[in-house]
Amino acid sequence: MSQTVCCVDIGSSKILAVAFSRQGSELKVLGYGAGPARGVERGLVTDVDRLAGALDYALQRLERETGERYQDIILNIGGRHLTCSSSQGFVKLLPPDQKVRSSHLLQVVDHSRHVGLPAGYEQIMASVREYRLDGRRQVTRPLGMTGDRLEVLTLLVNAPSQELDQLQAAVEAANRTIVDLVPSPLAAVFGLAPREMREEHALVLDFGYSTTSISVVRHGTVAFVGVAPVGSHHITKDIAALLQCSEAEAERLKTQQAHVKLSDIVADEAVEVVQNEGEPARKLKRRVLCEIVESRVRETLAHVRRLVESEGFSTQGVPVALLTGGGALLGGMDAAVEQELGVQRARTTWPKLTGMHARHLGVPEATVAVGLARIALEEGVEELQPARDSAGWRERLRAVWAMLPTGSK
User: Fold this and answer.
1) pLDDT band at 14 (very low <50, low <70, confident <90, very high)
2) Residue 319 to residues 67, 73, 199: CA-CA distances in angstroms?
3) Which of the listed residues 221, 353, 367, 384 has the most CB atoms within 10 Å of its CB?
4) What's the rounded Cα separation, in Å, for the pair 183 and 189?
5) What is the pLDDT of residue 192?
6) Phi-psi bin for 39: left (phi > 0), alpha (psi -120 to 50), beta?
7) How many CB atoms are located within 10 Å of the residue 70 CB?
8) Rounded Cα distance, 372 and 362, in Å
C-alpha cells in the first residue's frame, strides 16, 4: 500500500477525512477536511445519497487543502450491529521441524476463519490473539522458529452484508473507492500512542457521539470488541429535556459546566441556564446539572460492563482503562469509570502526530482516524487473499497481529 493514505472516520455527528504519511516511526498529518455527518445514525447508514454527499464534502475540503486527489479511501465501520467471535486454526508444518514462514501464518489464520456466521453477516477483520508453536504460546510472530504444528487463536469481527452494501454504494456515489474497512473499536485501539498500545491488559473505551466503542486488550492483542448504543449526545439530549433548554445550550452546559463526580461539586455552586433565546439566564444549582450527567454516564458504563461480561471477560480489577473520543473529556469521567467498572486506573489518551494540523488532530476525537492510518501504514497487518482471484476489498480479510507486543520497545 502507498505510504500516503486517506482515512475517513464516519461518525454520527461529523465526517473527518485526513491524509497521513509515515515519517519514521511517527504519523505525519498532510491535511484534513471535516463536515457534518448526513445519512448515518448510531453507526448505521440510513440514507446512501446523503452519506455520499457528506463524504464528498469532507473529501473535497481535504483535497483543496493538499492539492491532491484521493481516489482510494480507508473507512471505519461502527454501530452495535458489529459482532465478534473467537476461533482457532492450525496447520501441520511439513516436513517436520521446519522454519515458520509468512505463508504459514497466513494459512493458519485463514484456517481459523472457517466458522459459521450469523445469517447475512460477513467477516471484515481478524485480530490475532496468540500463536502457539508445538503448544508453546508465542508473544510475537514465530517467524523463523522451527516446529511441527502451528496454532492460532483469532478474534473475528463481522458486519451485516446489507450495511457493507450501503457503505460501498455511498462511497461509489461519491466517486471514490474503498480499499480497506476497519471496525471502529479496533481503530480506536490502534489510534492510541505506542506507549498505551503496549498495555498487557487494558480496556479501551471510545466515547462517541451516539455510541461507545469497547475493546479489551489482553497480553498485547485485541481480545474483544463491542459497541454500546449510548454516546455523549444522549447526555446533551437529557440536559435539554430536563432543563427545558435548546440542545445548543445543553451542549454548552455539558462541555463547560458538567462534571460526572458529584463529590467534587460545591453544594451551593450555581450555573446560568438560558431556557429561551432572548430571555435572561436563570441560575441553577450546578449539582442538578451534574446529577443528570452522572445518571446517563452510569447507564453507559452499565452497558459497557454487560457487553464485556457477556463475552466472558470482566472489567473488575483491570489494570487500566484508556479513554478516548469526545465524551472522554467530560470532567470526572476517569473517576466514574474507575468506580462503575472497578478498573484500577482510568486515563484519557491523546494520539501522537506530527506535521500540519498535528495540534488540532492530536485529540481524543480524532483517535479513530489515526488508528485507520496506523493499520494501513504500520507493519503488523497481513492481507489474507481468498481462494478465488479478486482485488475487491470485500474479497480479502485484514489480519492484525502483534502490533501491541508485550515488552516491545
Assistant:
1) very high
2) 45, 36, 9
3) 367
4) 10
5) 85
6) left
7) 21
8) 14
269, 285 in Cβ contact below 8 A? yes
Nearest-10 crossing angle of helices 48-66, 161-173: 50
Listed in sequence order, the residues at least 6 apart from 201 whose beta carbon sits closer than 8 Å to its beta carbon are 217, 218, 219, 318, 319, 320
Examine the fold and report which residue of 292, 310, 330 is the final residue of a domain before the chain moves on: 292
User: Phi/psi of residue 208, each to 5°?
Assistant: -90, -170
Q: Rounded to an integer, what distance in angstroms lies between the CA atom of residue 173 and that of residue 190?
A: 29
What's the CATH code of the domain at 239?
3.90.640.10
Cα separation, 182 vs 216, whole angstroms: 16
Distance in angstroms (rounded) separating the CA atoms of residues 399 and 105: 10
Average pLDDT over residues 300-326: 95
Place of cell 515458520: 100
Q: What is the CATH number of the domain that holds 99?
A: 3.30.1490.110
The C-alpha cell of 363 is what?
485529540
> Could you give the number of structural domains in the chain?
2
Beta strands 83-92 and 72-77 are unpaired
Whether residue 88 lies inside any domain: the answer is yes
Structural domain contains residue 72: no
Q: What is the pLDDT of residue 266?
A: 84
Positive or negative torsion for Cα 214, 216, 221, 225: negative
Listed in sequence order, the residues at least 6 apart from 95 whose beta carbon sits closer than 8 Å to its beta carbon are none
Which of 247, 273, 292 is the C-terminal boundary of a domain?
Answer: 292
| CA-derived radius of gyration, the chain | 22
Sequence-ordered strand ranges (E) for 246-356: 270-273, 282-285, 320-324, 346-348, 354-355
* Calpha distance 150→138 (Å, rounded): 10
**What's the pLDDT score for residue 198?**
63
Q: Which three cell numbers stand for residue 171?
A: 462511497
* Cell 498535528, located at residue: 358
pTM for this one? Answer: 0.90
pLDDT band at 105 (very low <50, low <70, confident <90, very high): confident
Tell me the residue range of the domain where 91 lies: 83-157+383-388+396-401
Look at residue 244 and tell me if it is in a domain: yes
